[in-house]
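Tutorial handout. Part one gives the primary structure; part two gives the three-dimensional structure as tokens.
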Amino acid sequence: MKSNERWGIVGHTWAVESLEHAIRTQRAAHAFLITGPHSVGKTTLARALAKRLLCMNENAPCGECRACVKNAKGVHPDVMLLEGVPSREFYVKNGSTAPPRKNDREKRILLVDQMREMEKWLSTAPFEAKYKIGIVRRFEDANEEAQNAFLKTLEEPPAYAILILTAQDAGLLLPTIVSRSQPLALRPLSAETVEHALVEKWNANSADAQLLARLSSGRLGWAVRALNAPNVLETRREALDALNALVQEGRAERITRAEKLSKDSAALPQMLETWQMWWRDLLLLSSEQNAQVTNVDYMNALQAQAQQFSIEDIQRALNATRSAARQLAQNVNARLVTEVLALNLPRIE
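Part two.
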């Protein structure tokens, strides 16, 4: 059995084999930085690494020993996972009340108090295992104060501590944190790999698996969530409906629609990502005769717009959408960003 199959990982064979070799030769680092697009499998790999390190049997991870069972349930006392403060929607879905926060941005931020909590937890010896493993998800969402607090732990970790960070891009972190971590840059999986996994491991039918594999852009985590949560595809449909309406509207109608869209600021990043996929598909169709597009279920609309818009129109729309996404990430006013983008999109005459 291949290492990634034993670890329960789909794809990313090179990363698993690299980690397996480091563990077997006792050269495993005290800190790892796993980077890659959202939902590409970073946290899954981090959890699998923790499971491998804490397994009590020789053919680790065995999936059957007490440590593996506890890891699978998320209750191992020597593993701590930190992530940013959840959004209000998270608490609503779980029937509880969100704690007060200063602003909407705070929902995505890893706070310095969380870093200090992990530092305190690491200061005591392991309860059951050889290691204590701290996993910090989406470390790019840690504010500077939190990153500096974590740096102290990273510079002088206890001998038994293993720290695993995940982030979208190493360039978003303090250079001193990156330099003290072993990098593992995960790449998107092939559409064929995602499609096969959805059918074999998640019992998806062939048609759904093919569509979700294309839409996932190689991110298996996204594809699995979309398979199990129909609202993901419904949200995508609404985003594409809004875009296709905008390119047929005049200036006043666009401003009105943009204002409505901007009111749901939490949904805007995903909406703009969906729009970027649309413009990339149009660019492919305009430049390649047999292009493999992402939005295969919208082929008729794509082909019609590829004939309507010039390559220059499409490229400008794609650049404008990317720019809007960057501005939102920098906390620029959502309404202003959405209105400017709406006015810069081409129009079907």
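Part three, for discussion. The chain has two domains: 3-185, 230-344. The chain has 17 helices and five strands.
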